[in-house]
Amino acid sequence: MASDLLDGILSSAKASISVILVLAYGYGLRKLHFVSGEAESDIARLCAKVFLPALLFTEIGPLTTASNLRNYWPIIPLSLFFQGVAFTVALLSTKVGMPQHYVPMFIFNNVTSLPLLLINALAATGGLDPLVTGDRTLESALKIGRVYILINALVGNLARFAVGPYLMKVQPPKVWIRSHREDAEEDSLLPESGNVALPIEEPAPESRRRRKQVKIIAHARRIKDWIVSAMNPPLVGGILAVCFGLIPWFHTEFFGAGVLSPISDSINNVGKLFSAMQMMILGAHLYSKKGSAVLPLHLAWLFTYRFILAPALSISVVYYIRTTWPNFLDNDPMLDFVISMSNTGPSALTLSAVAVMADLPSDVEGQVSRILTFCYATSPFISFPMAVAMRMVKQTGVGR
């Protein structure tokens, strides 16, 4: 366990240092005026509206096949369950004074780059050897582990950009709240009756039917407007990836070596620009958007949940399922380890792009940048729950 812990500390420390260095580059470029304020805003919008949708399209598409969803479906409800618990915790926290823009930071952690980096580093140092069972090689175990991570990332990314911008800012629901203007619109659709006094008797059946139809039309319009407003570029990119991935011909021709693969390759090249550009712009925000003060109590509670309570929940759930309902999950120790760690770690860096889509005030957007920087500075703490997860997998004896 000590060697696993040391490997985890070194791996996660390297990951956090590389992120912080790129943030520092962005901070320095902005401070030295290599990047102007206008360019900073333009690049932030490009990241949120072009680079990120392209990245999600090329990451989600190749994994979205009927066989993957059929074989790895338990990952999906478990991922949604963990997000639901985090949402409940965050919502209760806002009731006692925590700002609204913290909510997505409780729900959405880094589900792609950091987990992939960690299992690659563990494989290189022998930390994954206990998860290699049967006739499986280390390389095959590592490959299936990446698939598990990316399936979980598929769920996290789609949910993040579907509801993230709405969770990050306070606003009244648009669909079910009626306004005086909407009431007037509905009344305007009804036949005019002049200034004649309303009759005392019951309305005619045709009038009741007409009023009911008008109400249905008004509700349908509000639902349509909500759906249109929810279709932000990253979510559209993810949905298109699912559609293209589930159609066999498009999956082969687009994400394989077919005639449409050059288009997929070009989108992939654009998507690769996101990670570095987003981190540099996040660093620039640290200089240009000072933001209001970040309360240590809020940071401590976010850190406690993301690095202590969240992994305790996921590890306990996996242990309970494995010991009481073993057929729910495949007999694979790598699957148990990945699910145990799927709920652990710092908040996702892409939440800075979500802040852009949410049109937050400049001081709040600057605060989001500082919170994410703090999260990645403390990311080496992920090694402790990782060691506990590894110990749990060994105790259950999965795959033996």
UniProtKB/TrEMBL annotation:
GO process terms (BP): transmembrane transport
Main location: membrane
Membrane topology annotation: Multi-pass membrane protein
Coiled coil residues, start to end: none
InterPro entries: Mem_transp_PIN-like
UniProt GO cellular component terms: endoplasmic reticulum; membrane
Keywords: Membrane, Transmembrane, Transmembrane helix
Entries under Pfam families matching the protein: Mem_trans
Keyword Phosphoprotein: no
Protein's recorded name: Membrane transport protein-domain-containing protein
